[in-house]
Fold this sequence. Notes:
Elements: H1 19-27, E1 38-39, H2 44-50, H3 58-69, E2 73-77, H4 81-88, E3 99-105, H5 107-115, H6 117-126, H7 128-151, E4 156-160, E5 164-165, E6 168-169, H8 173-193, E7 197-201, H9 210-215, E8 220-222, H10 232-239, E9 244-246, H11 256-269, E10 275-276, H12 289-295, H13 297-305
Parallel strand pairs: 1-2, 2-3, 3-4, 4-7, 7-8, 8-9, 9-10
Antiparallel strand pairs: 5-6
Helix pairs in contact: 2-3, 5-6, 5-7, 6-7, 7-8, 11-12, 12-13
Amino acid sequence: MPKHGATLHIAESSKVQRPVEAVINALNHRHMDFLPRGELFIGSDFLDHYFPGQKGELIKQLQQAAPSLGLSLVGVELNSEKSRLLLSDNSYKELQEYFIAGYVNGPISRLIEKHGFKKAMLSTRNDPSLFSGISTELTKEMENTARLARANGFSAIVLADDIAGKNGLLFSSRYFIDTVLPVYRQIAGVIKAEGLYAFIHSDGDMRKVIDLIAEAGYDCLHPVDAQAGLDLPALQKEFGEKINFMGHLDILGWDETRISSEIKLAEENSLNGGLILGSTGGLSMGISEDKLCLLYPRWKEREHQR
């Protein structure tokens, strides 16, 4: 069974289930009446288009977007100066009826951002000091971020680190095991010391390292990247006792028939937990209204009321 945060606990007997409870029940493999839905990445273009009256006021936009979509989990970024100010002001407390998951860029993503893709990949073979410097700084930063996140009513921190492509890891398995994994394990420990769940995000084919990531303390993997050959039922069969999954619907690439079919299968097979229903790539203005309404039926009700 996937490991959960140190202090978060919701009684199974609760009759009135808040959105945050639905996600916690899924993560702890309790039987549910419905699958919780969630999005880590909700684009500013999406929010500004549909909630223009609150443009520039992220918290108010999310307070409108979450119930309009029927979200149980709401993702927010924690990399920018603006987000750090919101954390310091305890502004995210306004969202704490939801399972708030704050995402922080991981060490590989920061390595690529700072040095460019080519130099970053070359450093995995010939200059380990570049990675070690970034990972040390990140771990210290995470201690403060996790503490503030807990004070704001967050339920999880997501380490967002794209370490794979369609053909697997961007670097050798040995580099991952010897160099990256110890940092991931340390960061998971920091997150859980604050009683939060530890999520991890990476696009690409992650199959070779899912076991290792689960053993390092991560509770949920986002997304299930179908474009990289990942298949939700197969992953649940192989790893479902060790880790949960989130976001397997490619609502940009799939047609409406497949989206409907995948939602139906998920709702039939995952009511005993292990899955948070959502898209692979987040919500942006590139998504058609028809597809959005398939995944989020409440959105159709909103559109009728406009």
